[in-house]
From TrEMBL:
CDD domains: OAT_like. Pfam families: Aminotran_3. Keywords: Aminotransferase, Pyridoxal phosphate, Transferase. This is Aspartate aminotransferase family protein. It comes from Pseudothauera lacus. The lineage of its organism: Bacteria, Pseudomonadati, Pseudomonadota, Betaproteobacteria, Rhodocyclales. InterPro entries: Aminotrans_3, Aminotrans_3_PPA_site, PyrdxlP-dep_Trfase, PyrdxlP-dep_Trfase_major, PyrdxlP-dep_Trfase_small. Belongs to the class-III pyridoxal-phosphate-dependent aminotransferase family.
Amino acid sequence: MNEDTHVFYRNPFTTYPVIARGEGAYLFDTKGKRYLDACGGAVVSALGHNVPEVVEALKAQLDSVEFAHTSQFTNPPQEQLAELLAELSPGGLNHAYFVSGGSEAVESAIKMARAYWVQMGRPEKWMVIGREQSYHGNTLGALAAGGNRWRRALYEPMLYQRPRVSPCYCYRCPFDKDPAHCALECADDLERAILEVGPEKVSAFIAEPIVGATAGALVPHENYFRRIREICDRYDVLLIADEVMTGLGRCGTWFAIKQFGVVPDMICMAKGLAAGYVPIGATLVHNHIVDTFHNRRNVFQHGHTYMGHPLAAAAGVAVIKYMQQHKLVERSKKMGEELITRLREALHDHPHVGDIRGRGLFCGIEFVLDRATKHPFEPELAFHRILGETAFANGLIIYPMGGTLDGRRGDHVLIAPPFIITKAQIGRLVELLVKSIDATVAKLR
Ligand code: PLP
């Protein structure tokens, strides 16, 4: 235990190197060790570290005002950020509710869905349904909507119960179908769940357009979300796209859901929105929901102290402008293609690499004990954790996760470097990754 520190996260015995500075795609600790940051923490650092334009925008905001409560004032950066997001998001999502992170954005959406149906004269509609192998945040509402069994387990008695819905997981289709010939049984599973609980109770369905932490950049069948939209419309269920990880260019378009041809009723975002420079989250809300708040007596009964924080919003504006000026969303698409090609070249015949997938600079690798049977490693081996630690020791930071299948079974990593990554850095990333995978396999023998 490090007796000099009183910070507590996982447990008091976990110690970490001390961060000293960041520069572009690299982080440096106080001992001078350099790390290639290939996941931006938990898919946060979209621009890379220490971008002067963003730092200057934050300083300028601090020179005018650091904070004024949203119940008393609006502030220019949040108005400007809302305007920018309305321009970039799919049609009609013209209203932004700014909070401090992803879980708050999801909680706000869950409550907004409830408030909407109450305004619509349907107060019995309250339940938000999510899928298995999904993660929507660690606060109780968001955890209940999500289907990450491992994260839920300790808190299960405190979570509202809802029917389970299949993920769209073509590599391991829950219905044993081939994606080229399936009838989208996984999407129809939502209809089954809505009917099981009763459509009169269901307010919304929440899904990540491309599943991140729980499944390793799981790209859905190209028609999946169209069918989901139809089912939601059939039963008066709102569709919430959780773009906390995928939002703002990460998958090669400003919003990942745009790639699947539907407009959701709400979008939750966070991480990439201020790219880690300060904490922020947002729930983008469609006009038709906001229109139900049609007089001063209709209030959305919710809120957090730091909503619409001027510094957070200023960072968001600076990040979007920087991305626009440097065409970073296009770059995320292009460099993402480079990354996935290089990963496939290096790992396509690796005996323990089952699947390599993703869009833009949001890539996942799923590991298996046996490629032919797709049998996973035993959870006790903690393959993903050892791989993450080995890569870290080698100066490469990736995002390892277990529980791709259910409970703790299944291992994958997310690779999500900053959009400014160069081809040479991608080459180095792949080299260090292959070295780390091989060392991990050797350790397990
Ligand atoms: N939703 C998704 C898809 C996420 O990946 C995360 C975090 O990883 C969250 C919500 C929760 O965000 P936060 O950790 O900022 O509360």
